Amino acid sequence: MNFYDKLDQAMASFSQHKGGFLTVKDAQSRVNTMTISWGFAGVMWGVPHFITLVRPVRYTWELLKTADSFTVSFPFEGMDEALRICSVESGRDIDKSKVVTFQDAKSVASPVVAGCDFYYECKINYVDAMHGDKVPEAYQKHYPEKDWHDFIFGEIVEIY
Ligand SMILES: Cc1cc2nc3c(=O)[nH]c(=O)nc-3n(C[C@H](O)[C@H](O)[C@H](O)COP(=O)(O)O)c2cc1C
Fold it and tell me: Structural domains in the chain?
């Protein structure tokens, strides 16, 4: 499967459905997932990458600091309640394994969310911080707390 197969459906699940699940396992084997609906799939350094955007206040970001991978699980339809809970509750407060079922990934340590329609497994290659002063005025409204996103570049090593 090419990395851009089903890319239209993946991006539609971000823009028209209720998002996807970003799942991370850290160096201490802590696992968490959160809902995401912003992100990019494309080519970097000649190989497919998915770039996820995570604010430093997220528990998921704390796990990403020592993780070497993440996965993105896309439900093209359904799973609305799990997506909602994972978008308002933090893994600091609840155990998300009671909300979704984690299942081993094929090639990376971070698991995927069972029952989704499409998956990326990604090896973290690069992390950079957004420069808040360069964000256009029209989009500053997204950062009342000045909690600018980090960009986490994941090389897509499995797609199914
Ligand atoms: C539709 C939707 C999409 C979201 N996308 C993102 C995202 O791309 N990046 C981000 O940092 N937070 C995003 N969030 C917020 C997180 O999902 C939310 O804060 C979550 O509770 C964080 O969980 P955690 O603390 O366990 O990491 C989104 C929320 C919603 C409702």
Answer: 7-159 (2.30.110.10)
